[in-house]
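Transcriptional regulator, pasting as requested.
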Amino acid sequence: MKIKIGVIGPADSVKQIMAVAKEFPNTEITPFTYNYLEEIHAIIQENDFRMDQWFFSGILNYSYAIEKKLVTNLNALYPNMSGSTFFGTLLEAQLENNQVYKRISMDTITNEEVEKIVSYYRLEEINYFNRPFQSYADQEERVEFHKELFEQGKIDIAITFIWETYNELKRNGIPVFRVTPSYLSIEQTFRILVERAKTSRYKNAQLAVIGCQVNMDTSIEDIHYSFRMKHKEIELRRTLLFISEKVHGSLLQIGDGLFLIFTTRGEIGPLSEEELLSVIHDVKEQENMELLITIGYGETVSQAEQHVRKGFHHQKDQHHPSIIIIDEDERITVKHGNDASVSYKTIELGESWRNKIKHTGVSPGVVHRIFSYSKQYNHREFTAQDLSRWLKGTDRNARRIITLLEKANIIEQCGEIQSGIRGRPRRVFCFKEDEELNKGGN
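Structure tokens follow.
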């Protein structure tokens, strides 16, 4: 089956991109044009199920689709338009008008990129004004940036990467040229998307096992094959059969309270994960049972099932309903409903770390979750309140963990935060040897 890629952009950009598409005869590439950004909604919603990847003509429509959560950075990309591409457009403008332009305004690319190109090609005589890309929603500010500089006599021409900006400046009578991606950058983007699609198809074909384990809050009499337990089990089985049908899987019960759903990775998406989290809440409220759910991915049934059992082991560190997902690379992802998820790897700690953690009573998984959250939120320093929020636990438990890790010389106090006019300041901590954690590959 051919890889399918959808190309989205204004008509002229799509035409340019499709001219390069002929280099990929074994790939089905479909063009989609629009006049207004809002049309991207319908394009993707009507065609997403048919496409493996999306090729966006530029950063504007790409960022729009990302911010509107129509695509992710795993199934969409746009061609890189570097400073070299910009100066190619500048040369084009000079040749077309037979004039050397030294006063220009530009947008979208970073200041660092412009400075690098100016320095490399020794173009210090060019007087330029740059406005790096910020958001798809700042079109008016971007146009005003160029317009104001032109009206003040500070520039001779404007150069933009954005189609909408180009058209608006033209309507205002401002000399403007538009940067378009080069043949090589379009070709490279296609190659990346094709490789992504192949990798995604391989992953989607991987085996997946959803493990559901029940802990029932019942009396001893209820547990021993009572009618009440059997009724609960039947209700749970009915719910899990519904989930199995949704993911085109097969449900298997292994002993009392343990169910496995066998399916493929491609059948489990964000919607399935949300439904599983809802099941956890519903079973707790309606049946008074604690349901633990983990998902294991693997190249074989045995590997996927082994990851499910590892997931149950890591569930003991969770204080709120969550789904533990372990993939073929041993990467663990914790899903908490609408909260941000966090991923980390179970790694083999160095000898010094093993010795320090061994007698603390704190599991390596908790240590790595703290470290992963600190990286994810860019918090090298953290407080007990940060830990309680990250671990979905109480402040008291967070303070206990901090005390144990501080005594073990794993973390150290590195500052204080005054929380208010009155009261003691909050202590701030950081890892003493975070380079050893980094060796493990978060």
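Note for the archive: The chain has 17 helices and 17 strands.
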